[in-house]
């Protein structure tokens, strides 16, 4: 049996801590490399904003671990959304990748995004991130820490981290809506609704 090497990226700890750790890390698929600039943390069944709030289902099964897996879902019948499961196994904690910067493979990203030129907002938004990486349902439950397909690799953490409420969760309790679990690289322009974020 082949043992997997210990991952360089530590995904353990509370989901909000793991989310901050993911800022600045790299997502790599083929010739495309993206640096993560914005994320949102989602807890287990106790988090009313989480897909795990109703328990384990066929759709959200990858959320329950092990950590380092991808959880993809189709949003509004238009966009795929990439989440990184942070564990521990059985806890259903995951981090939505909300934004990124292109490090390599710009021509491929422009083609996939059907964009004429690069802008700071090219991959600002979770649907744009998945589109830039060419992701679909086939990557659901993919092992991001294994050297094949879509990989999560170590990158440069941001000098400043911003935090604020998560977006698009009007169905959640007031307490969960107010939870400051959206995090962003304070030095990046690939961040949405920046005015709602404040330095940690």
From TrEMBL:
The keyword Hydrolase applies. InterPro entries: Formyl_transferase-like_C_sf, MPG, MPG_sf. Its EC number is 3.2.2.-. The keyword DNA repair applies. Keywords: DNA damage, DNA repair, Hydrolase. Gene3D superfamilies: Methylpurine-DNA glycosylase (MPG) (3.10.300.10). Belongs to the DNA glycosylase MPG family. This is Putative 3-methyladenine DNA glycosylase.
